[in-house]
Specification:
The protein is 82% helix and 0% strand. By secondary structure, the chain is mainly α.
């Protein structure tokens, strides 16, 4: 439990750091904090529910939930959803596995590189598909509402 709290806090701080880099309004920083905590919390919960061995499904679920959250915030704050999504999704970015993938290639450890490369690919694919599914549903619901 303590590790999860530390992960949530550091993910939220990292997201706010990216919000600063992307020149997000300071009034949105609490939204970014909430989004990143929701994003990483959803990932941790989905990972625990699946036994901790799966990467794709928890990332897909977390990307979907975060994109829905960003869409809701976009309507409430009258701002683009990408402002909230891109900063809130930061904890999911597969930087660690990408680093280990490249390190294994340099060290000519190709079986490890294959494992890390697959994990990196599945994480990126999960983010993209979760985001796409959420935005498709939101766009479809807007068109039905008209």
């Amino acid at each position: 439990m303590r590790d999860a709290i530390i992960q949530l806090i550091t993910g939220a701080v990292g997201s706010v750091g990216f919000a600063l880099v992307f020149h997000v309004r300071k009034s949105y920083f609490l939204h970014v904090l909430a989004g990143s905590i929701l994003c990483w919390g959803t990932y941790l919960a989905a990972t625990a529910a699946l036994g901790g061995t799966e990467v794709f499904i928890p990332t897909l679920i977390s990307g979907f939930v975060t994109a829905i959250f960003a869409e809701i915030l976009a309507r409430v704050c009258k701002a683009p959803s990408t402002v909230f999504f891109m900063t809130s999704i930061i904890p999911l970015i597969p930087g660690r596995t990408l680093f280990y993938f490249m390190q294994a290639i340099v060290r000519e450890q190709y079986s490890q590189a294959s494992n890390y490369g697959m994990a990196t690919f599945l994480t990126a694919l999960g983010i993209a598909l979760g985001m796409s599914a959420a935005w498709t549903i939101c766009d479809f619901s807007r068109k039905i509402g008209r």
